[in-house]
TrEMBL record:
The keyword Oxidoreductase applies. It comes from the Bacteria. PANTHER family: ECTOINE DIOXYGENASE, PHYTANOYL-COA DIOXYGENASE DOMAIN CONTAINING 1. Keywords: Dioxygenase, Oxidoreductase. InterPro entries: Phytyl_CoA_dOase-like. It comes from Larkinella insperata. This is Phytanoyl-CoA dioxygenase family protein. GO terms for molecular function: dioxygenase activity. Its cofactor is Fe(2+).
Length: 344
């Protein structure tokens, strides 16, 4: 770390001790995206939204559905060619994993002490197995960038935020995650925490028994969980993710919210609110993969510095009117997988 960055970090530490942030019980109302406010004028917004007339769906209908349910599904919006290019990039990463410092997360007991590792340091049989997330592969893959900044995804998120869209991070799965029920915002925190949404892109047809994604319809409106120090999970939290999962399941059941599992086709996309309760079902058929690509997004206001470098202006790549930042720690890998160059 440079002397300047060390100085900035020390100043922040002192400031935080002198002026500790209040314990949040919810997102501040003044920071909410317009559609999360009370009684948003959806019809009025659509009339002034430039892209509305060019979309292959009724934007007002989708926004009303989002407001009520916390998600939308778009069918067959991603081409097989683009998905296949990305999957080929992923396969090349696996085949030649010893050449790359790209990170993966391993949620297996034997890796509990060091869950995030360089792919070159992990045996291939682990990389290709369950409980693996390839982290931010979009930085290295042109196809990954095109997937996450697909025009259909960008246009809807631009409407949600009423601002330029900025992609924050991505996770690539070969198998179902089998994660406990959770919400994203306690873990994925942009500079404006309420400016957060996610997309789940099916890279193959999802089959029953593969560890399908589950979600609770309308759960984005339930009271926020208190980790003991507010609504975000960090080193000072006195509650743990299992407590969080139990709270969400109980609260959703108490409110009678419908639990659905996601059985969608290759090229379909689920976009969900940062507070939608969701998770991964157990894998009942070990033969089944569930290849998927999860991307998190914020707005130009909500995410203006890369999470790995909060001091310096990020290197930006613009696509379809949205931005994604280069990884400041892995600049040597930016766009080295080029299969996506001529695919749309």
């Amino acid at each position: 770390m440079s002397i300047v960055k060390q100085s900035v970090a020390k100043v922040r530490q002192v400031y935080n001790k002198l002026f500790p942030a209040p314990v949040l019980r919810d997102f501040p109302a003044k920071d909410l995206p317009w559609i999360d406010g009370k009684n948003p004028d959806i019809e009025g917004f659509v009339k002034q939204f430039p892209k509305a007339a060019h979309l292959p769906y009724d934007l007002a209908e989708k926004l009303h559905f989002w407001k009520k349910n916390g998600f939308v599904i778009f069918e067959q919006i991603i081409s097989d060619d683009l998905i296949d290019a990305y999957l080929a990039d992923v396969q090349e990463l696996i085949d030649r994993h010893q050449e790359y410092d790209i990170n993966i997360r391993i949620d297996r007991p034997e890796y509990r002490q060091h869950p995030v590792m360089k792919v070159r340091d992990v045996p291939r049989e682990i990389i290709e197995g369950q409980y693996i997330k390839i982290m931010d592969f979009h930085n290295a893959s042109v196809a990954g960038k095109k997937l996450m900044l697909h025009p259909a995804i960008v246009a809807f998120l631009e409407a949600i935020f009423n601002q330029k869209v900025v992609a924050m991070q991505s996770l690539t799965f070969l198998y179902g995650s089998q994660q406990e029920t959770h919400q994203d915002f306690p873990y994925v925190v942009p500079q404006v925490p309420s400016h957060l949404a996610a997309a789940w892109i099916a890279l193959e047809d999802v089959q029953a028994g593969s560890g399908e994604l589950h979600y609770y319809v309308g759960s984005h409106t339930i009271p926020k969980f208190n980790w003991g120090n507010g609504i975000f999970f960090n080193g000072e939290s006195t509650k743990n993710p299992t407590d969080f999962g139990h709270y969400l399941s109980r609260e959703c059941e108490r409110l009678g919210l419908e639990k659905k599992t996601l059985l969608i086709k290759k090229g379909d996309v689920l976009i969900w609110h940062a507070a939608l309760a969701h998770g991964g079902e157990p894998i009942r058929d070990e033969r089944l993969t569930r290849k998927s690509y999860v991307c998190h997004y914020s707005s130009a206001l909500g995410y203006f510095r890369h999470r790995h470098d909060l001091v310096n202006e990020p290197v930006r790549y613009e696509m379809n009117g949205a931005d994604v930042f280069a990884d400041p720690k892995l600049t040597q890998y930016e766009n080295i997988f080029k299969r996506g160059d001529h695919v749309s």
